[in-house]
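Dig into what follows:

_____
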Amino acid sequence: MKPGLNFEFVRHADRSFEDAARKARDLGYRYVEPCLIQGHCTLSEAGYCHWQSMDSRDPRRMKDFLDNLGLAVSGVSAHAQLLQGWSVEHLHKALRFAALLGAPIVNTAEGKRPAWLNPTDAFTLLEIHLRAVLQVAEEVGIYVGFEPHGEFSTRPEQVLELLERIDSPWLAINFDPGNAFLAGQGPAAYLRQTVRYVRHVHAKDISRDQAGVRGTVTGTPVGTAVGEGEIGFDRILEILHQNQYTGVLSVECATEEQAAQSLAYLNRAIARLESNRGEPTHVP
C-alpha cells in the first residue's frame, strides 16, 4: 500500500493545481489524485482553484509537469451525477483524459437521486449509464471507480448487486470509509463485503464534529487527518493488507497540516503491517 493525496487539501486556501502538486511533493507524497471538470472555471484559470478543465488543459502537459516533480497519478476524481444523462459524456471524456495523463482509474459516484425518479427506476438507470461508460473504459483500459457517495453506493449489498449484474472487469470500487461511515454503515464491515472489487481507496477520516451528521448524509468532500477521527483506520488498513491490496490510499483532507499528519500516520501504519508480514493479524 502507498500513501497518496487528493488535491482537495488546498481548496480552502484557493491554491492552483501547480501549487497543490508542489506542496504534495514537498510534504513527501509521491502519488496524487487530480480533480477534473468540464467547461471553463474562472477561478481555476486565474490560479485560485486546483480543479482542472478537460476542455482547456492538455493532459500530456499535466503529465509532464507531474513527472518533473516526481509525482505519479493514482487516479482522477471526475465525479459525475451518474443518475443524469450528461454523466456519460463527462466520464467518456474523463476516461480518455485519464489515459493520456497516465491514471489507472477514474473515480465517480451516482449523485443525488432526482425527486421525480423512484428508487427502482433509478437503479436501472444507474446500471444503463454505467454500461455506456464502461464501453470507453474497456477501450482505453482504465477502471471506473464507483465510490460510496450516494443512496445506492453507500449500501454494500446494492453495490455488489450492481457489479455482479454488469460483470465488467473495468468496473471497480473506489472505497471511501468516511462516506460509508457518514451514511450509517460500519466502514470495516462494508470493506469486508466488497474488498475483492477495490482498486483505489480514499483515505478519509471523519472528525467528531463531522460525525454529528451521521445517518443524514451520504458523504462529504473532505475529512480530517487520517488516524485522528472516528473511522478506526487501523482496522481498515489491516483488512486491505490481509486481502493483498497494494494500491494507493489517497488522502482526502481539508488542510496542508492534515495532509502532513495523514502521511506520517499512514507511513507508520504501513511499515507496521509490512513488518508483520507472514504473522497472523486480528481484525475485530
